[in-house]
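Hi there,

I know you've been waiting on this one. I reran it after we fixed the sequence typo, so this is the corrected version. Both the input and the resulting structure follow.
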Amino acid sequence: MKLQLKKYKEQEKEWPQSGYHIMAQYDDEKIIVYQSYRPEIGSFAVKNQFFGGAFSLDRMTWIKPNFLWMMYRNGWGTKEGQEVVLAIHLKKEAFESYVKNAVYSSFKPELYVSYEAWQEDVANSNVRLQWDPDHDPYGVKLERRAIQIGLRKEFIKSYAKDDVLEIEDVSDFVSEQYKFVKNKDLENLVIPAEKPLIFKDEKLNTYLKLK
């Protein structure tokens, strides 16, 4: 496994406690995002290093750069149809392209002159942006907001193959760490090392509410 790991308790002390933050593992070249699938889709992706087979290019797919947000949504890999947890090593420039083309999934009056203008933007955009409450390992809601990005049409086609550097199956790791969560032993919980992502594009940071 190529993820850089760090104890949860150590990271918790360093992370922002509130606000909008893209918590992620990244460097200058790549960013890690997570998805969970049923074995048919997940196993194909790992074996072939791209998304294909039963993976649908015709429906929106959502990616999450925040590990614990993914664990909240997939129940630490225990929910039906989400048993195979994937860490997708994604080109960072591709991820930035996604958010630059993203439209908020709910109306933001500070960004639009009217509700209709936002609806038109949504209809013409193939990337969705959504901020939701982040969660701790137990699934408790936090003040900090976590991002998820929905892709469709040309963006999902690019994501499925061209934008991917590597796809890892981290299901066993997730299962091992979930034991500490179930035992209420967060002192020994290890998760991917993450930090807030800020872009060089200040206009983009403002649009995303990043500080």
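Quick highlight: The mean pLDDT is 96.

Best,
R. S.
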